[in-house]
Write a structure and sequence with these properties.
414 residues, alpha+beta, Beta-lactamase, nine-stranded mixed beta sheet, 17 strands
Length: 414
């Protein structure tokens, strides 16, 4: 065990266990396989997906890749705390579990539950702390969509029915360039793109194009290689990170700013984030907007609180309220996006997963390997989880959704 990890152990051993404050744990489920004895080593770009490197990779991602800082404000807004841990339980595969048992069974690096401005529960595992910046994976897609909404509200993007090439001339004539922004927001471009996470799919080709020097001439050129439209835009849902990367180019083209700068000014500073965030950039200096945003757990919770309040932060409308509503509902004419049609109980909004069934009206931001932020606008409840699952497609999705439903049902009764 390294001296640094031994120091962490000694610090964690004396921290208070009161539910009002964050709690820290040195180990976690299957900790030895995650590299606990070696101090959860970060590895390299080539080894980042190995289990022994996942904990560090997903909490220190900006140490592996170039990134741009999303600057915090001069002073932070602070959550209040409730000293009573939620006593919720839920049934999964015929067995009842509580929050402690959920953490004992799932490779969660951080879990925070808050109701509006009050933190109810905050835990960290695998020697992660509240100072780590956890990578979002595809939760970043929703951040991108909310920035698009702000740009629309400011008139920088005239209409989401405009084609992407209006704001990104380098995409002119390509399939993505000729796709309306609305269809990109809804993952409904109709452009063929595979995302299986097997190293042989289109997302792997996209990653090579944006991260490997010399593999392409520009971010737009990387996107232009996916040029086979199989269905009309706006008619069929098909999940593709390339659509969000196109939105990132639209944002930069429309605002004349980097995505990180725009996020800092328009969201990160207004919500009183407690720490700088980072957004990984590609070899051309463009933020990789389909993933790779990194922030502290409580700052993800601040973003969740902003969404739960319809884009309003303590009386200031940060994101246009109508945009948040439109982003989290399905228009009558968009039957292909309805819950149960997209897949399982889920529907899709503007880069947002809509949760069908009861309790109604909740939605989530999701990323591979178990990253998730749930939002309930009715009760103002949010739950943010970071994780280090070994499988990219999260096998724990069903369980954390059941846990979330139980939390919402409890919150709405109070």
């Amino acid at each position: 065990m390294t001296r640094a990890i031994a120091l962490v152990v000694s610090v964690l051993a004396v921290l208070p266990a009161a539910a009002a404050e964050p709690e820290f744990r040195m180990d976690g489920p299957d900790a030895a396989a995650y590299g606990m004895q070696a101090g959860y080593p970060i590895g390299t770009r080539q080894t980042q997906g190995q289990q022994r490197h996942l904990v560090a990779t997903l909490s220190q991602y900006d140490q592996l890749f170039s990134s741009r800082v999303v600057a915090k404000p001069a002073s932070a807004w602070s959550f209040k705390r409730d000293g009573t841990q939620p006593s919720v339980s839920y049934s999964y595969q015929g067995v009842r579990y509580d929050l402690d048992q959920y953490l004992d069974r799932n490779p969660v690096t951080g879990l925070l539950i808050a109701r509006d401005d009050v933190i109810l529960f905050e835990r960290y595992q695998y020697a992660r702390t509240d100072a780590h910046r956890f990578t979002s994976q595809s939760m970043a897609k929703t951040v991108t969509a909310m920035l698009v909404g702000i740009a629309v509200g400011e008139g920088r993007i005239r209409s989401i029915d405009d084609k992407a090439e209006v704001y990104v001339p380098a995409l002119a004539g390509s399939a993505y360039g000729q796709t309306p922004i609305r269809a990109l927001l809804n993952m409904s471009s109709g452009v063929a793109f595979t995302e299986r996470y097997d190293g042989k799919d289109d997302i792997a080709a996209l990653n090579r194009g944006v991260f490997v020097p010399g593999a392409a001439e520009s971010t737009a050129k990387v996107l232009a290689q996916f040029n086979n439209r199989t269905k009309p835009p706006g008619t069929s849902f098909h999940y593709a990170g390339s659509e969000t990367l196109t939105l990132g180019l639209v944002l930069s083209g429309a605002t004349g700013r980097t995505v990180a700068e725009y996020l800092s000014e328009k969201i990160w500073q207004p919500i009183g984030a407690e720490a700088d965030a980072t957004w990984v950039t590609d070899v051309f200096g463009q933020e990789v907007t389909y993933c790779c945003f990194n922030a502290r757990l409580r700052d993800y919770a601040r973003f969740g609180r902003l969404l739960a309040n319809g884009g309003n932060w303590s009386g200031r409308q940060v994101i246009p309220r109508q945009w948040v509503t439109d982003a989290t509902t399905v228009r009558p004419e968009d039957a292909h996006l309805r819950p149960g049609v997209v897949g399982g109980p889920f529907g899709y909004g503007y880069q947002v997963w809509l949760l069908g069934g009861e309790p109604a009206g909740t939605y989530s931001l999701r990323g591979i390997r178990g990253q998730i932020l749930f939002v309930d606008p009715e009760s103002k409840l949010i739950m943010v989880q970071t994780s280090a699952r070994t499988q990219p497609v999260d096998p724990g999705m069903a369980e954390n959704t059941i846990l979330w439903r139980a939390l919402v049902e409890q919150a709405r009764r109070r």
